[in-house]
Design goal:
Number of strands: 4
Strand order of the largest sheet: 1-4-2-3
CATH superfamily of the largest domain: P-loop containing nucleotide triphosphate hydrolases
Structural class: alpha/beta
Order of helices and strands: HHHHEHEHEHEH
Oligomer: single chain
Number of helices: 8
Number of domains: 2
Length: 211
């Protein structure tokens, strides 16, 4: 998602970079492209609407600093609003008081979930000295399980997988196995999905409820 947004924003800002002055039409056009980029990245519609309204209000209401061009002023406001939208402070990680902490990764196709699983596993293992295990529940993407196993091997993390087309069953069995083996954190790597795909959303809900 962030790679897509970065590319879209870079293209947009390049178009307005050399404008000495941004007209209301220029601003509306820029905000329209920002809105489309956020929606294409599957950001919630209401969040996007609020984001655009805040950027527009600040872009038209704030006095431009003498050290900034109109282009830099818009970039500054967009950057500040993105930070505000994502959260400007870290909330930390809360581990379960009893039993293992179970984390399930969800997201769009190609959003980098599998590589993020490995980065998270390595982070929890090295920074918090946790015993981390991973369940390979992406049965749809070709070679997804092999990719996960190869990457996990490099950081010495166990992976549960099986030749089964039911992600819910795999998740339940994997979690139970790693609970018995004393894992502190169990990460479930799931397939990419869209929120409008009812079957896939039901699947992810079943994994959550049964693990």
């Amino acid at each position: 998602m962030f790679d897509l947004l970065t590319a879209k924003f870079e293209d947009l800002f390049y178009k307005i970079r050399n404008k000495g002055k941004l007209s209301p039409n220029d601003l509306d056009s820029a905000l329209r492209e920002i809105k489309l980029a956020l929606l294409e990245a599957d950001v919630n519609f209401k969040v996007v609407e609020e984001f655009i309204e805040n950027v527009k209000a600040k872009a038209t209401g704030e006095k431009i600093l003498e050290s900034l061009t109109p282009y830099q002023h818009v970039v500054k406001i967009v950057n500040e609003e993105i930070i505000r939208m994502l959260g400007s402070s870290s909330g930390g990680i809360s581990f379960a008081s009893r039993g293992p902490t179970i984390i399930m990764t969800v997201g769009l196709h190609g959003s980098g979930k599998t590589s993020s699983v490995i980065k998270l596993a390595n982070f929890l293992k090295t920074k918090f000295q946790k015993k981390v295990s991973v369940v390979a529940a992406d049965v749809y993407r070709p070679a997804a399980v092999l990719q996960l196993e190869d990457m996990a091997k490099n950081i010495d993390v166990d992976v549960y997988s099986e030749n089964n087309s039911d992600p819910v069953s795999i998740s339940v069995k994997g979690v139970e196995l790693f609970k018995k083996s004393g894992s502190d954190v169990i990460i479930i790597d799931t397939a990419g999905r869209l929120h409008i795909d009812e079957n896939m959303m039901n699947e992810i809900a079943n994994i959550r409820n049964k693990t």
